[in-house]
Amino acid sequence: MNIKLTAVVTGITMAVSLFSIADAAAYTANSKISSFDLVTQTAAITPLSLQFFCAQNKSECAGGGRGQVTMSPNLMAVLKQINGHVNRTITPERDTADIWELNPTSGDCEDYVLSKRSALIRQGVSAGALRIAYTHTRRGEPHAVLVVRTSQGDYVLDNLTNSIKTLRASGYNIRTMSSPNPTRWTAG
Predict the structure, then answer these.
(1) Count of domains for the chain
(2) What is the pLDDT of residue 96?
C-alpha cells in the first residue's frame, strides 16, 4: 500500500473506533448501571530525549511497583532530603541540545527530575508512584517536575524550590505526565 492509502485507512479505522466507543458509552449510560464511570485518558508522545535516555539506561526507566505510596513523616523527610540534595548538587544550565542526563554537574529541569527519581527509587520509593511531568513556570516557560503520588495526594519535587508542595499548592497545571511506566505518557 502506498503512504496516502495507508493514512486514509488508518484515519477511517480510528473514526470507526471512536464512534463505537461513544455508542457503547451512550448505551451503558442509559442502562441504569450506577457504578459505570467513563474514564478517558489522552495518550501523549513520550519525549524523544527521554526515549534516547531510556535506550541507553534501561534500568533507570523501569516502571512497576505500587502506583501510590503511603505518606508518612519518614517519606516526607526522604522527599525533602533528596529534593534539597539534588537541587544543591546540580548547577542550573540551559541545554544547547536537549540531552537528558542522570546526576550531571550542571543541567536543566529534566536532569534534576531524572536524578531525583533515581535517588528516590534507591531509597525504596516505588517507581510506579513517581511521575515525570511537564508544566509551565509562572513566566510561561516549559518546565519539568517530579510528581510523587501518595495516599495524601500528589507532591511536587521541583528544582526551582527546596519546598515540597502538593500539586495544588505548587500552582502548576500539568500538561503531560508519565504513567507508572515512565516510557508511556498521558496528556493533562
Answers:
(1) 2
(2) 82
Whether residue 143 sits in one domain with residue 124: yes
pTM: 0.77
Provide the CATH number for the domain around residue 95: 3.10.620.30
pLDDT for position 33: 38
**Does 166 or 16 have the greater pLDDT score?**
166
- Write the single-letter amino acid at 27: Y
